[in-house]
Amino acid sequence: MAYEVTFGIQVMDEVMYADYRKGISALLRDHGGRFRYDFKVSDVLISESDSPINRVFIIEFETKAQKEALFANPEYLAIKAKFFHPSVGSTALLSEKG
């Protein structure tokens, strides 16, 4: 059974965020992951979080261990620091299952 993670984020800089996504694509694949869904959100009607979001996506991995390995990978962390942090205002982990 696959392991899924659903995030909500607030993208502040679309160009830089696209660079982040491009930068992690091979690493994500190498760790058995892929984006299943990716939505731009125009209106949030109900939120249990104080973090504003304008993007929701689901990432699927073959196992939880592969997800953890990607998020701890030094190359991923460098790409995240360079592109994700400056382009995203807030993040919310919406669900994990698998």
Oligomer: single chain
Rg measurement, Å:
13 Å
Poorly predicted regions are none
Counting DSSP E segments of at least 2 residues, the number of strands comes to: 4
By secondary-structure content and strand pairing, the structural class works out as: alpha+beta
- Count the helices. How many? 3
Given the C-alpha coordinates, what overall shape results? globular
CATH class category name: Alpha Beta
Strand proportion, as a percent range, falls in 25-35%
* Average pLDDT, all residues: 95
Following the backbone from N to C, one meets helices and strands in this order, namely: EHEEHHE
Percent of residues in helices comes to 40-55%
Strand order of the largest sheet: 2-3-1-4
Largest sheet: 4 strands, antiparallel
Give me the CATH architecture, please.
2-Layer Sandwich
Summarize the structure.
This protein is α+β, with helices and mostly antiparallel strands and 98 residues long. It is built from three helices and four strands.
Could you describe the 3D structure shown?
The chain is of the alpha+beta class and 98 residues long. It has one domain: Alpha-Beta Plaits (2-Layer Sandwich), CATH 3.30.70. It has a four-stranded antiparallel sheet. Helix 1 packs antiparallel against helix 3. The mean pLDDT is 95.
Keywords:
98 residues; alpha+beta; Alpha-Beta Plaits; four-stranded antiparallel sheet; 4 strands; 41% helix; 35% strand
Topology of helices and strands:
Elements: E1 3-11, H1 14-30, E2 33-40, E3 55-61, H2 64-72, H3 74-87, E4 88-97
Antiparallel strand pairs: 1-3, 1-4, 2-3
Helix pairs in contact: 1-3
